Amino acid sequence: MTNKISVDSMVKIPNGVITISSIDAFNRIVNNFRENLIVVEFFTDWCGPCKSFLPIYKKIQRKYYDKGVIFTRINSDNFPEVANQFGIKGVPSLILIRNKKGLKRHVGAIHGHELMSLINQYL
What we know:
By secondary structure, this protein is an alpha/beta fold. The protein has helices spanning 23-32, 48-64, 80-85, 112-120; strands at residues 18-19, 38-43, 70-75, 93-98, 101-107.
């Protein structure tokens, strides 16, 4: 299970993958950390590839914590309006965001080294 971190209590970069619990929480992360690279994973509870990707996602998050990269997860079934805003059609999907803009999108499960390569392009 991922960490459920209160966005209101965030003063520094959260150390853990943030599971988004509301649209307001997602907007606060995007606004409060706009200069940081934010990696957003769209997932669903019923998605097998999403479940197998989660340990990889957590491992990569730990490698990039010191670089200021923020990792979040959004359940597409619970927040379809956010998924629609980003044009998410399948899960898992990743979106990299900085300054409130989507930089890169990847659809489907991804290996750890591929995710690191993708992130490194925008650091």
